[in-house]
User: Which sequence fits this backbone?
């Protein structure tokens, strides 16, 4: 008998670890961001002020489905919106529901439970959902069009297929790009600078290595990342928890023994998920990030890593690495009874799009016209 319940306490959340990981292995999802370790650590640090809305589907005493959600109140254009969304929301690059491959009945029950609590939310939002996790057509069928407005927007991840073959991968990178990296290395020699690189994984990563990353980021183009003590503590705790599983991986390049650039992510099911990266702008002319990433890819080939997921965002630099687009989805399900939500998330965006597509009027005056 299949049943769904809501987990509302941190204690209950903590007790799900073993069953969560067993289910995850059978789900076909290969991302650190939906593991118990990642989400539970995030909730411990950032859950305050939010309602835990973690749904679990049980078949007897066996965990067969998970919808890791949270509820919070936000303000959009001055209006309060009650949002039910992916746990960790903007901090995670992959979200969705967890259930065994082909478990459509489980998905139906999870959706039915969410709908049964529709008096507690106005908007359901899931960001960066892989198709293998939630097929848009199947997901949409669970929300009746008379009651809900369903929006699905594509999002893009860039993946690099290396297949443990460094020589083949090198040949696929453009000659111009490889020449540019060699030129930067020559610039280092000409300026009398040396460089060294470290690659660390799992429990090799110590708090002092994370401090190096924080220092590099403070001199980067985005110095606000890791700005607060809360964020720094979260990342150190996350490394401590996931390090026991061997998941985290970081690489750092030093110029004259000074940390200059880093890559930080997770190795999971022979895939590396690039989560954060940065370089010290004082060393920008040497492009330390490119030198580091090329060396890191070679190192991954020797470790048996098959694929590198550069995660969300269509930044131009990702295309230089012979990456391929992977389609993900961003879902917004708006309750039609919530007029303010319909205006804010459906009608206003549609109106803006319509206005943008209106061709400009020809205001040219024909002076030769005979009136």
Assistant:
């Amino acid at each position: 008998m299949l049943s769904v319940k809501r987990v509302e306490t941190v204690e209950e959340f903590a007790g799900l670890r073993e069953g969560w990981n067993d289910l995850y292995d059978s789900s076909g999802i290969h991302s650190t961001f939906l593991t118990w370790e990642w989400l539970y650590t995030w909730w411990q640090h950032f859950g305050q002020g939010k309602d835990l809305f973690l749904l679990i589907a049980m078949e007897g005493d066996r965990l067969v489905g998970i919808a890791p959600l949270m509820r919070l109140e936000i303000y959009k254009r001055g209006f309060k919106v009650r949002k039910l969304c992916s746990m960790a929301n903007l901090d995670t690059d992959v979200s969705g529901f967890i259930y065994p491959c082909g478990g459509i009945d489980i998905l139906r029950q999870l959706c039915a439970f969410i709908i049964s609590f529709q008096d507690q939310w106005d908007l359901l939002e899931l960001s960066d959902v892989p198709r293998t996790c939630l097929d848009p057509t199947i997901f949409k069928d669970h929300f009746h069009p008379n009651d809900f407005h369903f929006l699905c927007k594509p999002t893009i991840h860039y993946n690099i297929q290396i297949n443990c073959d460094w020589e083949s991968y090198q040949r696929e990178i453009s000659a111009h790009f490889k020449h540019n990296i060699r030129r930067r290395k020559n610039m280092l020699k000409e300026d009398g600078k040396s460089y060294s690189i470290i690659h660390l994984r799992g429990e090799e990563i110590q708090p002092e290595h994370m401090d190096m990353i924080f220092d590099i980021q403070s001199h980067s183009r985005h110095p606000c990342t890791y700005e607060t003590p809360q964020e720094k503590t979260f990342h150190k705790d996350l490394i401590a928890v996931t390090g026991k599983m061997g998941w985290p991986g970081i690489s750092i390049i030093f110029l004259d023994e000074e940390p200059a650039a880093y890559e930080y992510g997770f190795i999971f099911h022979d895939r590396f998920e690039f989560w954060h990266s940065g370089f010290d702008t004082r060393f920008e002319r040497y492009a330390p990030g490119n030198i580091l990433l090329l060396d890191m890819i070679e190192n991954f080939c020797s470790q048996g890593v098959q694929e590198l997921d550069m995660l969300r965002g269509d930044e131009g630099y990702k295309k230089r690495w012979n990456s391929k687009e992977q389609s993900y989805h961003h879902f917004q399900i708006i309750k039609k009874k919530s007029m303010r939500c319909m205006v804010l998330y459906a009608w206003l965006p549609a109106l803006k799009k319509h206005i943008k597509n209106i061709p400009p009027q020809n205001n040219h005056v024909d002076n030769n016209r005979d009136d």
